[in-house]
Design a protein that fits this description.
The protein has about 550 residues and is an alpha/beta fold. The chain contains 23 helices and 20 strands. Among the domains are: about 80 residues, no CATH class; about 280 residues, 3-Layer(aba) Sandwich (Rossmann fold). The strands form 4 sheets. The chain has a 6-stranded mixed sheet with strand order 6-7-8-3-9-10, sandwiched between helices. Helix 7 packs parallel to helix 8 and helix 16 runs parallel beside helix 18. It starts with a strand and ends in a 6-residue tail after the last helix.
Length: about 550
Amino acid sequence: MSDAVLVIENLTVALPPWADRTRAVDGVSLEVLRKEMLCVVGESGSGKSVMAKAILRLLPEPHVSVTGGRVLFEGKDLLTLSLEGIRGVRGGRIAMIFQEPMVALNPLMTVGRQADEIIEVHTGLRPRERRKRVVEVFRDVRLPEPERILSSYPHELSGGQRQRVMIAMALALEPALIIADEPTTALDVTTQAQILRLLKELQARHGTAIMFITHDFGVVAEIADRVAVMRHGVLVEQGPAEDVLMQPQHDYTRALIAAVPSLVPRHFVRDRQTQTSRRNLLTVSGVEKTYAGRGGAFSFGRRRVHAVAGVSLEASTGRSLALVGESGSGKSTLARCIVGLERPDRGAILLEGEDIAGLSRARLRPHRKNLQMIFQDPFASLNPRWRVGDIVAQGPIVNGTSRKVALSEARELLRLVGLDPKAADRYPHEFSGGQRQRIGIARALAVKPKLIIADEPVSALDVSVQKQVLDLLDELRSAFDLSMLFITHDLRVAAHVCEEIAVMKDGKIVEQGTTADIFARPQHEYTKALLAAVPGRAWQLRKPAAVA
C-alpha cells in the first residue's frame, strides 16, 4: 500500500435514467503505483474517462454522480473532501491532460498566461519567478522558442505543440500523479511517437505516476508498465503489461489486440484478376494550391503557403490508392481540389478523361454522381436537423429520383452498412461515432459513385470500430467495383484497404508504389520515419499468432 499513489476501491458511478445502462463505472478497484505508467484501456463508453473525472470530482452532477466507493490519495478520500480541498488537489498534486487541447485551452488567453495561472493559484511565487518556471517547463517538453510561445494563443500552435503545452501545464507544479485522457488520439503517428517518448522521459526524470487512458494497444505496448482493461464500466482484466500484451486472458482483451492494424500488408487477390481490365479513372497532373498566410507581427506583406506543390497521381478503376502524410502535408487540400471544394491554382484533374479542375458549381454538378467524399468528422458533416433517411436520400433526390424511391433505397443502404433500416427515422446525435461514419458511407454510396475519396474516415474511432469500418469499406469496394482515394496519416490503416500508397510531405509526393513494396523497401527517409513511428511496432512483430 505504501507504494501506491492512488487507490480506487469499489468505485461506482451512476448514469441518468435515460442512459443505455445504469452505471458508467461499476465497482472498479485498482491502484496506481509510484513512478508507474498504468494504462487504462477500453473502447468509447467503457467508463475510462468517467472514472478519471470522478477522481478529480469533475463529473456533470447531479445527472452523473458517484454512488459508492472510495478514492484514496495521500491518505485522504478525495470523494469526501470539501470543494476548497479538492481544488487544492487539482492541478497541484494531481494534474490532468485532456484529449483535445484546443477545447481544454482558453482561446482568449495566451498559453503562457494559462500556465502561469496554475502556478499563481497554487503557490506564492512572484510574477518573475512564475515566468521563469513556465519557460523551464516549456523547454522541458521541447517546445521550440519557449519565450516566443509564451505569448502565443492556442490557435497559433500546431496540434502537437498544443498537446506539449498541456503536458507542460500538468508538470508545472511537479504533481504526484498525472491523469492523461487519450492525449495522442488525434495526433499524427510521428507526433504521437514524440509525445509518448516525452511522457516516458519526463516520468523517469520527475518520478511521477501516470494513469494513461487509451483505446489503442499499440500505444500500450509502447509505454505501459501495467495495464487495466475496462468494458461497460467493469474492470475485466489487469496485470503487468508484458503478461496482458502477450498472454491476454479475457476475450475482450484479445479482441482489442486483434483489432490493432497489422504491420503486414494484405495480399490483394483481386488485383491479379483485374490487371488487364483496369483503366485510369482519375488522373491528377501538376496540381498546385497556394494560400496567403499571415506574416509576422511587424510584417507588411503576406506569406505564401504552398499547400499542394505540383502533385501528380493516378487512380485506376477498381483500385484503392492511399494518400499518406502528416497534418499539414497537403492531403486534405488535394482532396478538396479533386471534389471541387477548392479551386487549384494550376494543373489538371481528369475524371474519366474530362478536366474538372476549376469548374463552377453548376458545371461540376453532373460529375457529382461519379465522385463522392467521406469526411473525417461525420457529426460535423451530417445535418443535425435532418433525419438520417433524408440525409442519405438527398443525393438521389437532387439527381432526379423520386423521394419515395430514394428513401426506400436509403433504408436498404443503411442495412448494407450494418445499421437497422429503422435508423432512417432517427437523428445523427442519436448514434455513436462509428455508426455516424457508417451513415456517411451510406450517403456517399447513395448516388452510385465510381470514385470515393475518404478523408481520414477512421482516425477518431476506437481500434475495434476502426477495424469494422475498414472491413466494411473493403467489402463495399469489392461489391460495387469502387475506386477509392484513402487519406490517412497511419500506414497500417492504409495497408488494410489499399493496393497502392503515395506518401505526401510539404505538398509533394515523395514516394509512391505498391503497398507491399512500400512496407518492404521504403526508399524515402520520410516514409521510413512514418513506419518507425507506428506505436507498438516491436510488440506487433513479436506477438504470438494466438493474439495477432
